Amino acid sequence: MNRVIWWIRRDIRLQNNTALNAALEYSEQVIPLFILDERLFASNTIGKKRKQFLIHALQDLDRNLRKYNSYLIIRKGKPEYILSKIIEELEISMVFSEPDFTPYALQRDQRISELIPIQWEGSPYYHPPGSIIKQDRTPYIVFTPFSKAWKGMPFSYSQSKNNPVRPLNTPKNIDSEMLELNTHYTNENLFPANEAIAQQRLSKFTEQDYQSENPVRSSIFAYKQERDRVDLDGTSKLSPYLRFGLLSIRQVVHSAQKAIQLANQPQNREAAQIWLNELIWREFYGHILYHFPKVHKENFRLSNIEWKNDHEEFNAWKLGETGYPLIDAAMHQLQQTGWMHNRARMIVASFLTKDLLIDWRWGEHWFMQHLIDGDPASNNGGWQWTAGTGTDATPYFRIFNPITQSKKYDPLGRYIRHWIPTLSKIPDAFIHEPWKMPDDIQRETNCVLGSDYPFPIIDHQFARQRALNMYKSL
Q1: Does residue 342 carry a catalytic annotation?
Q2: Could you tell me the CATH number of the domain that includes residue 212?
């Protein structure tokens, strides 16, 4: 019988899976294969929490496959070697897989295409990198014109539908490695690695009352008002599911488009459009990394910045011991959960690159070690945007003030108190600037500065002027 492989990479799902659907159209016997690429899995940019999420997502996929006369095959090693071996072993006629677009993936897949019969189907992006270029055949390097071009591309509703999954009829007893589950996944409540949960979250966030003048909190129609508040649950929290493909980007974009089209309240329509723009930023950074792979290791521009790179200050930033409560709370959230609110990501990145003048690559690497949703393109794009070195970078004079940002986006200090228990009893008047507390209040609240909580490691006004002088000189 004609047998094919569905090689799973960043599409760990059954619903709305173009590569799987193509495999099922081609053959009645499909072998789902995931290869633990040791070159990637051993990388120091892949932290424990992201590995845990991946392993649990694969477990969930295996359970789902068993409903369709199938199961997940795991092999460890170099993909080109594993694929060649299993093709010979099982007499495979074709491999179906979703392409990837990082520099490493492109080089790997080029080698594999020369060795085995493989058909690339689908994409982790709605419009794959390389598909949106200017009239002169050069890539966009500014977001706004890219966004306009992206929105002007054809939108296919039919490709966003969930096709019913048919039995895969995978042959029995194919050798498979065991998934290593020697560590407990600590984020089961925050980010369950589960396709059904991902579908539920998308539906809950996007399928609200399209006519309501008072949108439900934590919905797409409340996104404009709530998305920057670090103390509210105002974002979709879908990023880990998009990172590993537990959700199809086509389905997610369609859900956003549907909300825009059906909302009959202008404020709801605007909020949904803002959320769609965030998805387009993800697309933009994927295209940038594809066209300019150098950004993975180099500044896109301003290559002559002289970073200060103080190791002690970097360690204080990493550990959440800078003395600025919002910065420290965000860094604690990152270490404890593997996730950080997007507004907080911008603030801590600004503090590292502008206040401390530490190379954005140090922060980018730390994020990739800890983020469950750590994505090479989006993480790189966000850091270079904040540092002022990227394609569509923030102006050099935009330097986030960690105090005013804290007051604006965590006005009651709930986020700070949650992630820094030492500050839980601090009066509202001092929660954003604890160094202003009188000595008697420090003793009463068990938060003595310099002992229980650090003084600021740098004066922001001094740091801001220093950064302005440095960037102006460039």
Answers
A1: yes
A2: 1.25.40.80
